[in-house]
Design a protein that fits this description.
By secondary structure, the chain is mainly beta. The chain has one domain: Beta Barrel (Porin). It has 2 helices and 8 strands. The chain has an 8-stranded antiparallel β-barrel with strand order 1-2-3-4-5-6-7-8. Strand 5 and strand 6 form a beta hairpin.
């Protein structure tokens, strides 16, 4: 009889995991609430700034663009802030290939060195959360959405033929990790760094123009900048 009672009182592993999760839930909620409400002393305030940037994208015509941007960040409350920015990037490369002549009688050109110049013009909006302070440094994470215009031109270096690449508009999703540190005791000037991971949606367009940017794209970005806090 006693053995039967003992066996009936045994709990399954799933029940044990559920009870452990329920015990951890209030603690997790408290941590999130503290992060949202408690301010970070050194970085409370609005910011305006600029940055230099290097990107890495999985596309031959837009592989390693360089550029920069300007941004405005508005502090909301606690550790939250919003950020809006505009940026411009350019990528130039030379590779062996062929340029096709347009028209009904398309003909395959001979292989030649091709000069490709591509551009990205972007408008991005993000929501950022300050995580922690380490001495003078502040670490933050964020997520955002953006709108980017991609276009460019290719030119045959031997033939002199030139074709404009199909312009496309892409919506992007991104997440980031950033740091900032005050570099002057007298002036509220911050040195900022940020690493972003970006996903661009596909944009299929039926056209005769070359369209190397139609597929979905993945990319990463490194930013170094300066900001004025007010």
């Amino acid at each position: 009889m006693s053995r039967r009672n003992v066996s009936q009182q045994k709990r399954s592993p799933s029940d044990t995991l559920k009870s452990a999760s329920l015990r951890r839930a209030p603690a997790s909620f408290a941590i999130i609430l503290i992060l949202l409400i408690v301010p970070v002393k050194k970085s409370v305030g609005n910011q305006i700034g600029l940055y230099a940037s290097k990107m890495w994208i999985d596309n031959q015509n837009l592989e390693n663009p360089s550029g920069g941007g300007i941004f405005f960040s508005r502090h909301l409350r606690g550790r939250l802030s919003t950020r809006i920015e505009v940026s411009h990037h350019t990528y130039k490369t030379t590779y062996m290939g062929r340029i096709y002549s347009s028209g009904p009688a398309q003909m395959l050109a001979d292989p030649e060195p091709i000069r490709s110049v591509a551009f990205i013009n972007s408008l991005n909006f993000s929501l950022n959360l300050y995580l922690l302070e380490v001495r003078k440094w502040v670490v933050s994470v964020g997520g955002g959405i953006g709108r980017s215009a991609l276009d460019g031109v290719i030119r045959g270096l031997d033939s002199g033929r030139e074709l404009e690449l199909q312009s496309v508009i892409k919506i992007s999703l991104s997440y980031s990790v950033g740091t900032e540190v005050r570099i002057s005791d007298r002036l509220p000037i911050l040195f900022t760094t940020q690493i972003r991971y970006i996903l661009f949606n596909p944009s299929v367009i039926i056209t005769d123009a070359p369209n190397p940017f139609g597929d979905s794209l993945k990319g990463s970005e490194l930013r170094l900048g300066l900001a004025y806090m007010f």
